[in-house]
Amino acid sequence: MATIKPFKGLRPPRELVEKVVSRPYDVLNSEEARAEAEGNEMSLYHIIKPEIDFPIGTDEHDPRVYRKAAENFQKFQDKGWLVQDGQENYYIYAQTMNGKTQYGLVVGAYVPDYMNGTIKKHELTRRDKEEDRMKHVRVCNANIEPVFFAYPDNKTLDALIARYTAGEPVYDFIAPGDGFGHRFWVIDQKEDIDLITREFAKMPALYIADGHHRSAAAALVGAEKASQNSNHRGDEEYNYFMAVCFPANQLTIIDYNRVVKDLNGLTPAQFLDALRQNFVVEDKGAEVYKPTCLHNFSLYLEGKWYSLTAKPGTYDDNDPIGVLDVTISSNLILDEILGIKDLRSDKRIDFVGGIRGLGELKKRVDSGEMKVALALYPVSMKQLMDIADTGNIMPPKTTWFEPKLRSGLVIHKLD
After folding, report:
1. Nearest to 413 by CA among 200, 186, 225
2. Distances in Å between the alpha carbon of 187 and those of 380, 397, 406, 410?
3. Phi, psi dihedral angles at 52 (to 5 degrees)
4. Range in 156-165, 223-232, 392-401 with the lowest mean pLDDT
5. Residue 123: pLDDT over 90
6. Alpha-carbon gap, residue 131 to 216, rounded angstroms
7. Which of 111, 234, 271, 322 is the least buried, fewest Cβ under 10 Å from its Cβ?
8. What is the pLDDT of residues 331-352, one digit of tens each?
9. What phi and psi, each to the nearest 5 degrees, are found at residue 94?
10. DSSP notation for 338-363
11. Cα angle 24-218-148, degrees, rounded to a multiple of 5
12. Are 277 and 340 in contact (CB under 8 A)?
């Protein structure tokens, strides 16, 4: 059963929120962060991308950069750009994209739940990326950015959230760039706080949707602090890390597509012939073609779009991993025909989040940078949860969630 707790959030004053908040650290590079933070000393990028305070080209993993994160974090508190709440609260964070709103509860997730598998993952993590985030959590002694969880649908929580969100939010703004809406409420009534804690205690599992490296890093630092504390009790703040938890039925996974630099020595005609072994191939002409259902793919090659439908017998509907379109395409196209064995390390392949649209695939092929593009039908939340429940791991670059959580609305300190 899932254990959560409220916490004393560290938050920007209402009038400063749009100055402080930022995109997550891992969706932009140092140059983009530098540009977005230009002229704004209150930008959270000074904490989560502190290399922007050093000369261009400074290694983001330089020990001085981590120290700068802690220095800037303290400065934000000293100057009143981040102020800690006086009591432990839960929070509601609503995001609106293309007219659809999803409502998340911001909670302290329990480190042992991550360790024992009550918090379920569906992706592998890389140790170097974990270590980077661990250093950041250690030096700041805080979870500066939240992780993104899904929880099983719950009508009691839906009703509580509806009651709070009928009132005026503490924060309400449209993010620049993407135009997505962000609203935020504080849950500070004891009976409501207790109700949320009880409802989560009935849930058999929580699911990491996005932020596997942040989850691993936060949990590992929490466990590390527990092992180093000779008077460890189990209720210390470091036993918890910040997560925004959304009902699974409100979340949408969008497609995560592939572009490849060459055809592995084949001509376009030979490549299409090779595809016909396992797929029904249909020429769709110059109009953009989007996959229509599971096991249907869209291919862009030499100015033309093609529909590829996997033939029966090329996949197993009873295998939670084998049935995924990312597995079918990896095995039967990328590996078997194009010779791409490792999606994580092969430099011939790149990945494009569906938020950019299929036009981005066409652009990268038409420019000559890439030779062929492959678009996939998105994974469902049910597939993701089934895979996590069976202890399986999805192939790399399978899921893309939008909208991304804005960082800086609330921060969780570890003491």
Report:
1. 225
2. 31, 35, 19, 13
3. -70, -15
4. 392-401
5. no
6. 9
7. 234
8. 999 999 999 998 878 999 999 9
9. -110, 135
10. T----TTT-TTEEEEEGGG-HHHHHH
11. 45
12. no
Task: Please confirm whether the linkage preceding 320 is cis (ω < 30° from 0).
Answer: no
CB burial of residue 396 (10 Å; 0-12, 13-18, 19+): middle
**CATH 3.30.1760 occupies which residues in the chain?**
256-377
pTM, two decimals, is: 0.90
pLDDT digits (tens, 9 = 90+) for 48-104: 999 999 999 999 999 999 999 999 999 999 999 999 999 999 999 999 999 999 999
Beta carbons within 10 angstroms of residue 197's beta carbon: 16
Calculate the alpha carbon distances from 38 to 57, 221, 311 in Å: 17, 32, 53
Instruction: Choose between 105 and 402: higher pLDDT.
Output: 105
Q: How far is CA 168 from CA 102, 246, 379, in A?
A: 17, 20, 35
Rounded to 5°, angle at Cα 253 from 158 and 403: 70
Here the tokens at position 88 are: 């432990």
Query: Using CB atoms within 10 A of its CB, is residue 359 exposed (0-12), middle (13-18) or buried (19+)?
Result: exposed
Take residue 381 and report the two structure tokens written for it. Answer: 């939340």
Alpha carbons 71 and 38: distance in angstroms, whole number: 19
Helix, strand, or coil (residue 180): coil
Q: Specify the CATH number for 256-377; select among 3.30.230, 3.90.1570, 3.30.519, 3.30.1760.
A: 3.30.1760
168-174, long-range: CB within 8 Å, 24+ apart, which pairs? 169/94, 170/14, 171/14, 171/17, 171/409, 173/17, 173/18
In tens, the pLDDT along 162-217 reads 999 999 999 999 999 889 999 999 999 999 999 999 999 999 999 999 999 999 99
Contact 237, 413 (CB under 8 A): yes
